[in-house]
Amino acid sequence: MSPLRRDEAPEAAVAIRVGLVQLRTPNTAAAALAHVAPLVRKAAAKGARLILTPEATNVVQRDRAELLAQLRPLEEDTVVAGLRDLAAKLGVELLIGSALVRREDGKLANRSVLVGADGAVRATYDKIHMFDVDLPNGERYRESSAYTPGEAAVVADSAAGRLGFSVCYDLRFASLYRALAEAGAQLIAVPSAFTRPTGEAHWETLLRARAIETGAYVLAPAQGGVHADGRGTWGRSLVVAPWGEVVAKLDHDDPGVLMADLDVAKVTAARAAVPSLANARAFARPQVTA
User: Fold this and answer.
1) Considering 11, 42, 46, 55, which one is annotated as catalytic?
2) Is 89 annotated as catalytic?
3) Which of 191, 161, 127, 209 is nearest to 4 (CA)?
4) Quick one: CA dihedral 166, 167, 168, 170, positive or negative?
5) Which terminus has fewer CB within 10 Å in the chain: N or C?
6) Active site residue 266
């Protein structure tokens, strides 16, 4: 979906309620759908018009062979299909933070999916930045060995305002968030499955920084706790307002629902108070001199 110009952004209603679903996704698709569906229903019952789930909503499976055996194209994924049906039944918009799926060329993608209140897929985004790292505690991750990175940033209209897409490790690349804001994003999703060491050190700080830099709401639903495959994720889902203050937060790793009311007029106010998007200038990259 092509980015939209900032001057095209429509007026958004005040006090739009959103719901963030924190998960501890199991290692099979059937168990994953049974895990997430009741929490989506709970968020809808609390009045959410837009509901967001974390990265890897459809499966968390460390064993590569087991994972590959389960992954399907987006249109055939049982968790995605179940959540599309549920969104239509509940009459809510749903951002599946990401589903691990097979691309049309047979390669794999970590794909965020915006589902409309009619159950139709409105927009998708493939995670751009791959988590390839050796952590100080000995954990080693090579996301690029399994997944093909996306090549395009995405902004789409949602019930809560103009929504920019990102996934987990994207959070560390500020230029992506600036591009989303310049394309008119009023809120930016950061569905994640942060490791525990990096989550404890950087999660909230980075989320607040991205909100301040862009003058946008940042919505960060997370995986949390020790999963069936033994993986540990940080949790602590939160919502950050455009001025940088945390307005809603889960202070634990357990599955649950986090509710927040968004006033998109605060985006306009924050960007007027600190007009860094408008004041940016092109510059030459530095040259190393002796």
Assistant:
1) 55
2) no
3) 161
4) negative
5) C
6) no
pLDDT of residue 132: 83
All domains of the chain in start order, with CATH: 13-275 (3.60.110.10)
Q: What whole-number distance in Å separates Cα of residue 238 and Cα of residue 259?
A: 9
Residues in the chain, total: 290
Question: What pairs with residue 73 in β-bridges?
Answer: 102
For residue 243, how far is the Cα from the chain centroid?
Answer: 20
For the cut 50, the answer to whether the pLDDT of residue 1 exceeds it is no
CB 180 within 8 A of CB 164: yes
Catalytic residue among 93, 168, 182, 266: 168
Residue 12: is its pLDDT beyond 50? no
Query: How crowded is the C-beta side of 239, counted as CA atoms within 13 Å?
Result: 20
Catalytic residue, chosen from 8, 11, 104, 127, is 127
Token digits for 89?
Answer: 């039944």
**Mean pLDDT, range 265-289, rounded to an integer:** 95
Q: Which residues pair with 141 in a beta bridge?
A: 133
DSSP state of 225: E
Of the given ranges (101-110, 179-188, 213-222, 236-245), which has the lowest mean pLDDT?
A: 101-110
Query: Nearest 10 degrees: CA dihedral of 95, 97, 103, 104?
Result: 0
Residue 127 near residue 96, CB atoms below 8 Å: no
| Global confidence as pTM | 0.92
Question: For the packed helices 29-45 and 78-90, what is the interaxial angle rounded to 10 degrees?
Answer: 20
The question of whether 66 is a catalytic residue gets the answer: no
CA atoms within 13 A on the CB side of 8: 13
- 115 exposure class (CB count in 10 Å sphere: 0-12, 13-18, 19+): buried
